[in-house]
Amino acid sequence: MKFCSECAHPVELLVPEGDNRPRYVCAQCATIHYQNPKMVIGSIPIWEEAGEVAVLLCRRAIEPRYGKWTLPGGFMENNETTWAAAIRETQEESGADVELRTLFALLNVPQVHQVHMFYLARLKNLDFCAGEESLEVRLFNHADIPWDELAFPTIRKTLKFFFEDYAKVQAGDGDYGFHTHDIIKRQNRPDF
Amino acid sequence: MKFCSECAHPVELLVPEGDNRPRYVCAQCATIHYQNPKMVIGSIPIWEEAGEVAVLLCRRAIEPRYGKWTLPGGFMENNETTWAAAIRETQEESGADVELRTLFALLNVPQVHQVHMFYLARLKNLDFCAGEESLEVRLFNHADIPWDELAFPTIRKTLKFFFEDYAKVQAGDGDYGFHTHDIIKRQNRPDF
Fold it and tell me: Among 3.30.230.30, 3.30.930.10, 1.10.10.10, 3.90.79.10, what is the CATH number of B38-182?
């Protein structure tokens, strides 16, 4: 941020009176430009048939992580709820109609100022197709999940949580939980 | 938003190519200025003694809702996690040291582009005091909660969820859950 979005005057990075951290402040109109984390919301679309569960993944047609696999998801928009964002992003990226269940995972990614959330979701049918931001969309059984080709650590962790809970549910040993986790950047990785 | 924060040129509100909703776009440098919901994170600081539970509330020293009671909370900052935000905001507003338990409630407030989250928290001691944004801070038993003097519907709903779960836990009939809820604005109320 270089200029005030209200009056076009250059901004300065300083700690406003009564505050305790640097903000972009306009020296002309005194507007303080706060910057806050964003929410990335998605779903875990599942299809159960013949005693097996499959999860719908999308192969990214955009950067970052072009060509890698991800759960459908994206930035939450103003004027919508977390669950509406999950349904919209799933529809946009995979063409899939889902019935949302509960909020399943919340993952902090502080180094990129993001919080990722994923809802459990049931595919209503198999009429899915790649949206503009996906190269392809397909169902994966547990054994076929491309663990080394996943786009982000939040996807990997959410899928791990899901299959752990799924095994418990199948064994009659509990229900799906709500999971929280922090992704902390490792020094030798250029991106999280 | 009137001017581009990158080059100071006036912005236009238009639907960018490949997008489906209006954004502020710079006609000079082509930067798209996305606007997204913010997270307000807080805690439900509890103190249990002699078989009774009390919740710490803060009376607001700032607008909106000056003079009304709230749970400690505020906007999540960049570079922090949801739980770190809950601890920081609790400390800033009430001076209280808390030990966080689980994430207890997530409430959508789409009309103001916010998602509110509250963690269950145990007060480590009774050394609390009003921070700069609070007029006073005190413990309330269930019977004394100032229901008609609460600052926001998300506070009211979170406290309702808490006392319902607390009653269940006391009756040996379950544990604290994770609750989600949407606050939908009523037409005849000027603020939510």
Answer: 3.90.79.10
Residue B115 forms contact with A (CB below 8 Å): yes
Low-confidence winner among A146-150, B99-103, B188-192 (lowest mean pLDDT): B188-192
Nearest to A82 among B11, B83, B106 (CB): B106
> What is the pTM assigned to this prediction?
0.94
ipTM score over 0.85, yes or no: yes
Q: Which residues fall within 8 angstroms of residue A41, CB to CB, at 6 or more apart? A: A73, A74, A75, A76, A82, A85, A86, A89, A116, A117, A118, A119
Q: Where residue B192 falls among pLDDT bands split at 50, 70, 90? A: very low
Q: Residue B122 has which token pair?
A: 């145990």
Instruction: State the pLDDT at residue A192.
Output: 42
Nearest to A95 by CA among A58, A145, A70, A48: A58
> CA of A81 to nearest chain B CA: how many angstroms apart?
6
Return the CATH fold of B1-35: Ubiquitin Ligase Nedd4; Chain: W; (2.20.70)
Please state, in angstroms and rounded to a whole number, the distance separating the CA atoms of residues A53 and A41: 22
Contact list, A37 vs chain B (CB under 8 Å): 39, 76-78, 80
B132: left (phi over 0), alpha (psi -120 to 50) or beta: alpha
| Separation in Å, CA of A43 to nearest CA in chain B | 16
Question: What pLDDT score does B18 carry?
Answer: 85
What pLDDT sits at residue B186? 66
Encoded tokens for A27: 């020296």
